[in-house]
Amino acid sequence: MPESLENHFLQEVRKLKQKKRKRIVRKVAVLLLLLGILSGFVYLFYQGNVSWKMGNSAISNTRFLFSIFFVFILICSLIVFVFRKKSSLVRYQSNIESLNFWENLTLKRIKPKYLLGYTLLIIALVYQSNPDLFTNTINGLVNHIVYKPTPPVLNSPWPWKDRATIAPIVANMPSNVETSIESVAKYIAQKESDPYLRIKAIHDYVVSRVTYDLDVLKTGIRPAQDAKTVFLTHKGVCEGYANLFMALGRAIGADVVYIRGKIRRDLAPVELIPKVVRLLNSDYDWTNHAWNAVKILDNWQLVDTTWDDRDSSEIGFSYSAEYLTLPPQVMSISHFPDQLDWQLLTRREDYNTFENKPLLTPQFFIEDLTLISPTEYQTNTQKVGTIKIASSPNYHTKIVAFFTKVQKSESSFWDLPGSVNLLEDNQDTQRKLQDIKKCQSQSNATGETEISCKFAEPGDYEVFVLSVGQKISLLGQLKFHTLLP
């Protein structure tokens, strides 16, 4: 065979192989695009269904409508493509020629640049409609794959013996150290070697240096919540607290994860938000929240720095460590993560189970109490709501309860914070207590306390349970629906 003919033959073979590879790549790209569109529809529909079950009808409707629009675009694109190929069907009459038509439907004539353009357009539309769809999904996927959260097998130091005291290395930190997140983390790492106390120091730094930005609730305007901005401004909301805690933790080499999720509906601080802001943001879910998980000694632990910074903007600085590495079963009473792995429970719980739990605070478990009854958050009763609580033999603190009827403007869990002395004789306290009545409380020799709340008329009532010792601490909240004859 002449050399020129052989070269020509080999060149044609290479061209055929290149065309074959391009066809394969094009078909794979089309398949991935269609799968991506279908997956997006399924995900949006699923999320809308979940939101509807959670009571977020606005979010559910938005996602459902967008998913319908998504499918509509896909169907229209396919119809247009088929009609563009209709002329090919007229030209082919035989079975073989019609088969050639169906072969043309493999989309092999679509150029890769158009596929890329359509894909980017769809991604842009999805992101514009709901940015969290990408960030939450990607973060959740990364967290699940990279971190693989499992329930802790070792107990943390919770409840902390010095839970009312800031770590000395934080309280006495020189001002010249607080120039950057990295310098603060380096200082803590150098001064503290115990892994749990390091995390406590980071927690204490965030809680003591950051003030909750109530203006965000009052105006609806949310400044940047990245770690650096919160570090410099000393202000933030839950997102900012969690970002700063994560940045400090990672700066000392710890595995720290940012967790998105929800809190109980009755814990959302809706009453702090002006009605105008609520109306303007009617689609917003006020139960949205953010917290952290941190890996210590190969065990994942949960932390919420926001909730440990109590009333920081109202009564000065009030420190707590109740939400620092607390047991998952305690955190799961009030926090529901979007990624269920981060419940860190041996058995996952659904959202309905979450909302139906009796609403107990960490202090309830710190005082080693057990709720005998009721077993659900809301209970139907006739005239009297009864609560039974068991305590250890050496428990000498008095347990009391108050109740109030739920009006259009409901009482809030935050109206009775553990840091407020309810016995204070001031106008603000009196205003909060004027519609609250006391339940009857009686303890027996076995350490069991029985609380009876007598309701005068039918309706829904909220009962707040407290322990009264050197200080008054909120233990929990329950609801009773009264059906009087």
Summed up, what is this model?
The protein has 485 residues and is an alpha+beta fold.
Strand content: 15-25%
Tally of DSSP helical segments: 18
What is the total tally of β strands?
Answer: 17
Major beta-sheet overview: 6 strands, mixed
- Helical residue percent? 40-55%
Shape designation: globular
Helix/strand layout:
Elements: H1 3-53, H2 57-84, H3 86-91, H4 95-104, H5 112-129, H6 131-147, H7 168-171, H8 181-191, H9 195-209, E1 211-212, H10 214-219, H11 227-233, E2 235-236, H12 238-251, E3 255-263, H13 275-280, E4 288-296, E5 299-303, H14 305-308, E6 324-326, H15 328-331, E7 335-337, H16 351-356, E8 359-360, H17 362-366, E9 370-373, E10 378-381, E11 384-390, E12 398-405, H18 427-433, E13 437-438, E14 440-443, E15 448-454, E16 459-468, E17 472-482
Parallel strand pairs: 1-2, 10-17
Antiparallel strand pairs: 3-4, 3-7, 4-5, 5-6, 8-17, 9-11, 11-15, 12-13, 12-16, 14-15, 16-17
Helix pairs in contact: 1-2, 1-5, 5-6, 8-12, 9-12, 11-12
Structural descriptors:
485 residues, alpha+beta, 5-stranded antiparallel beta sheet, 18 helices, 45% helix, 19% strand
Care to describe what's here?
With 485 residues, the chain is α+β, with helices and mostly antiparallel strands. The chain contains 18 helices and 17 strands. The strands form four sheets. Strands 8, 10, 12, 13, 16 and 17 form a six-stranded mixed sheet that branches. Strands 6-5-4-3-7 form a five-stranded antiparallel sheet. A four-stranded antiparallel sheet has the order 9-11-15-14, with no helix packed on it. Residues 50-63, 89-99, 312-316 and 409-433 have low confidence and may be disordered.
